[in-house]
Fold:
Amino acid sequence: MDFLAPLTPMLEAGAPAIILLGAVFSRISAIVFLTPGLGERIVPMRVRLTAAMGITIIIAPMVLTSDMRPPEAPAAIAALYAAEALSGLVIGFGLRIMVFILQIAGAITAQHLSLAQLFGPTVGFDSESPFAAILVMAGVALAAATGLHIHLVGAIADVYETLPFGLFPGAEETGEWSTNRVGEALFKALALSSPFVILGFLYSLALAAASRAMPQLMAAFVGAPAITLAGMALFAAAAPILLFEWLEGFQNVLFDIFAGRL
Structure:
């Protein structure tokens, strides 16, 4: 291995930069694997990895300075990588929860319209309702059409002011923020699906009244086609409004991941 001896000084000189670049990549990769669009299961793993490397090349000069030096102890290096990966998971969760909103709203819609398993397995999880699959695909496509990749890079760069490089997120602050964010997401999902909840409630009242007035009538067989037609028509009319309302919240989160209004 004597022929590698001339490369030893170069490796020793470049090792600090490689360690710091790897730490940045730890955060970026966690974000990319959770962010809407790039984090979907249908996106190949190589595409996600390529996107993470590309964003790392863009972000690293904004974060790393010429006088920055990595720790020398292996345990300190591992702690640096763990802190960056945990910060990336927190940021990725803040973005991924916007997809959860569409999935929950679609599930609530499907349950109230009795169309939970209309098409069987979908492009996502097998238990995902068709309405959730449609909303997620349309929402991600709409976000990508409005410049998701550009705003994502800006959001990752800005969040370094809130979660500095190499520091673990505060446990108390992170727990309180994540709890509040989950509550806001559930409220948002219910708000988006509220027209279908109201429609399902009115259908149940009408079905109960028909059964009470004519006990011999199979009201469920008569009402099932009606609720299906009404639900599909309402979904076709309301889906664009719901998606643009969701897009506004998603853009607010991109501009301020930790304080943006959903």
About this structure: Residues 74-113 form the longest helix (40 residues). The CA atoms of residues 184 and 262 lie 7 Å apart. The helical segments are 8-32, 45-63, 74-113, 130-145, 148-158, 171-192, 194-213, 219-255.
